[in-house]
Amino acid sequence: MPTREQAKQARRDAIITAAVRLMRARGDAGFSMRALAEAAGVSIATPYNLFGSKQAIMLAVLDAGMARYEDHLDRLEADALDIFFEAVSLAVELYGEAPKFHKAVLFAAYGDGGRDHRAVFGDPRFLFWKGRVDQARDAGLLESEIEANALALALSQQFFICILEWAYGQIGLDELESRVHYSFALLLKGAATAAGAKRIAPRIRPLQQQLTRFWADAPLPLTADKSA
């Protein structure tokens, strides 16, 4: 017989699964909490009791997706430096498989701001990037005196800004990937050991060239720098 905590977790999981199913079917998060409760097979009060708000449920959906994303990433063969770039490319691939769903989750989780808005920089997303920084530093690819929290925060912010631009339709997934790769290359090169910097440096110029191609037809004031 399941314990009280196990039963509570089962209800939480059912609500998260139902929210994902509803958003995939609708393409948005406009369903009511009553509809969510019915889809999860729980009482109308249960989602509020377990999560507190619809926004908190959307953050839980993001957390569940993050866990699956890390499982996918663990299957890739990438060292402590390449993993930063592989992680971005994998996220872009997954967004491309269900763009409406992922945009719906982002709008629902962060569109209202509020006290949960900064959760994107906390557990588990921030900790994911901090873990990658720690691994690269331990491998001798980043300088030992680099403050892992500061670098991880900078990486996660750059990624999140570009994700939001994509969600609002300002850039496509290809440009998102190039922008984040470029930002990561610059940030990591500044923090890298000589060995790490030697591996990162060749990425920078091709990424600059990719970005200028995206911007070739952009309206002023964004114009391509001919020196890139």
The tally of helices reads: 10
Number of domain modules: 2
Radius of gyration: 20 Å
Work out the strand percent: under 5%
> Helices and strands: which structural class?
mainly alpha
What coarse outline follows from CA principal-axis ratios? globular
Would you tell me the overall average pLDDT? 88
Alpha-carbon distance between the two ends: 65 Å
What are the segments in which pLDDT stays under 50 over at least 5 consecutive residues? Answer: 114-121
CATH fold-level name of the largest domain: Tetracycline Repressor, domain 2
- Please name the CATH architecture of the largest domain: Orthogonal Bundle
Helix content: over 70%
Order of helices and strands: HHHHHHHHHH
The description of the largest β-sheet is: none
Task: Give the total of beta strands.
Answer: 0
Structural key phrases:
mainly alpha, Tetracycline Repressor, domain 2, 2 domains
How does this structure look, described?
With 228 residues, the protein is mainly α. It folds into two domains: 1-52, Arc Repressor Mutant, subunit A (Orthogonal Bundle), CATH 1.10.10; 55-214, Tetracycline Repressor, domain 2. 71% of the residues lie in helices and 0% in strands. It has ten helices and no strands. The protein has helices at residues 4-26, 33-40, 45-51, 54-74, 82-97, 99-110, 125-138, 148-167, 173-191, 194-214. Helix 1 (4-26) packs across helix 2 and helix 9 (173-191) packs antiparallel against helix 10 (194-214). The longest helix has 23 residues, at 4-26. The protein is globular, with a radius of gyration of 20 Å. The termini are far apart.
